[in-house]
Write a structure and sequence with these properties.
Layout: H1 2-12, E1 36-44, H2 45-55, H3 60-73, E2 82-93, E3 99-109, E4 120-125, E5 151-156, H4 174-194, E6 204-209, H5 211-225, E7 233-239, H6 245-254, H7 261-274, H8 288-297, H9 303-309, H10 315-318, H11 321-324, H12 329-338, E8 354-360, H13 369-381, E9 387-392, H14 397-411
Parallel strand pairs: 4-5, 4-6, 6-7, 7-8, 8-9
Antiparallel strand pairs: 1-2, 2-3, 3-5
Helix pairs in contact: 1-3, 1-14, 4-5
């Protein structure tokens, strides 16, 4: 039960800098041979947990659910396990194809430097963050605890975070994000080769939940469309993913989604940041119109702060009547921008690669219709034997993550 305990305990919590003897790796300020390492260290699982506790907040309900599960399964998390981590910068491209550098963190179980085997590499797309201080190279995230059950973990910061902090994340374009993450994976594998770490290149796992879930699907779609990357995932796990933004926006504007308010507004702010032809006055009402740049675009606040700011507001008190009207010109303009950003369309699952797709039927943030639309598309375009779909009633988006991680643990090996 070690796998399940690691993952579930990582939800419950949602260094020291001693480096091993190692070959000469690229360090400094300029990307050389695909990557450059600019920071490294070592931390035990326990040290990582303590740091995660300091930066992540958990609901009482989640704590109760995870506590009950741990009672059932028992805990076998190895708190003393040591992991070496490397923050590296790598070259990729921006949204318009322009050269651009990004950053990622690579975690390696320290035992791998002693010749002990690892199961493979996990590329993990991180969960939804808006504050740069919570990105993977800024602090340990719960996803990094996957090292506890035998995997090397690569966690890219993505567009707008880490070394790319000057930009605002493109939340609505998972395939672009997937291309950047793919380049981060390739650079991380080059660093692993330089470190002389042995691992199976045929056993790469692609994983993500929520924003990470759709970005993991963006990685899968991008690599399927670009076989020249020579990246093939043995398994992809994606849960709670906003795979169809146009469909979801229509539901958000016509139904009541109080738990999703901050997510909706941040997504719309992302659209405004990257489409300057749209006048914010046509989208946001006051006081949000005057405050969204500091509140959201600055990336200086945590999600909890943004949620508290909006706690007494309704969606129609923050968005203009034109934005709330699906047939208005501004809404049609935004829908036109989003129409080609869906995960469904233009690809099929590569042969021999398996996809595990998950969603809460009662998800309070990401409409279940995202799951259904992608499921229908994939069943038409891919070998159904390589597809696994799992949905159920799990109370909320957040609690659903516990079920998704359990689902992962049951199918990862």
């Amino acid at each position: 039960m070690k796998k399940i305990s690691f993952i579930l305990l990582s939800l419950f919590i949602l260094g020291s800098c001693t480096k091993p003897d190692e070959p000469d790796i690229n360090t400094g300020d300029d990307v050389v041979d695909g990557y450059v390492v600019y920071n490294s260290g070592e931390a035990t699982i326990n040290q990582m947990i303590q740091e995660i506790k300091n930066v992540e907040n958990q609901s009482d309900l989640l704590v109760k659910v995870i506590s009950d599960i741990l009672v059932n399964y028992g805990s076998s998390l190895d708190f003393s396990q040591r992991n070496n981590y490397y923050d590296y910068q790598y070259a990729s491209h921006g949204p318009n194809g322009e050269p651009m550098n990004y950053s990622a963190r690579l975690y390696i179980p320290s035992s791998a430097f002693e010749g002990k085997p690892v199961k493979g590499v996990m590329l993990i797309s991180h969960h939804f963050v808006i504050n740069n201080n919570l990105s993977p190279t800024s602090s340990h995230t719960f996803e990094a605890l996957a090292t506890n059950f035998g995997y090397i973990v690569i966690l890219p910061d993505g567009y707008g975070f880490g070394k790319n902090n000057g930009n605002f994340p493109i939340i609505y374009d998972a395939v672009f994000n997937g291309s950047v993450y793919t380049d981060g994976l390739i650079a991380g594998m080059q660093l692993l080769d330089k470190l002389e770490i042995s691992y199976s290149k045929n056993g790469i796992i692609n994983w993500g939940y929520s924003l990470g879930g759709v970005d993991a699907l963006g990685v899968l779609k991008y690599t399927a469309q670009h076989p020249e990357t020579n990246i093939k995932f043995s398994k992809t796990f994606a849960g709670g993913a906003l795979t169809d933004v146009p469909l979801s926006l229509q539901k958000y504007l016509t139904e009541d989604w109080p738990s999703a308010k901050s997510y909706i507004i941040i997504t719309i702010a992302s659209i405004l940041e990257h489409n300057p032809e749209i006048d914010p006055k046509d989208v946001f009402k006051e006081p949000l119109l005057s405050t969204y740049k500091d509140l959201i675009s600055s990336k200086g606040h945590r999600i909890d702060y943004i949620k508290n700011y909006m706690s007494d507001m309704t969606l129609d008190s923050m968005l203009t009547d034109e934005m709330m009207n699906l047939s208005s010109s501004i809404n049609k303009q935004i829908q036109s921008i989003l129409k080609n950003k869906k995960i469904a369309g233009g690809w099929s699952l590569p042969s021999g690669s398996k996809l595990f797709l998950f969603h809460c039927i009662d998800d309070d943030k990401i409409p279940y219709e995202n799951f259904l639309a992608l499921k229908d598309y994939l069943e038409l375009k891919s070998n159904t034997e390589d597809l696994s779909f799992y949905s159920g009633y799990f109370l909320s988006h957040l609690i659903g993550m516990a079920a998704f991680i359990t689902y992962t643990a049951q199918n990862i090996d």
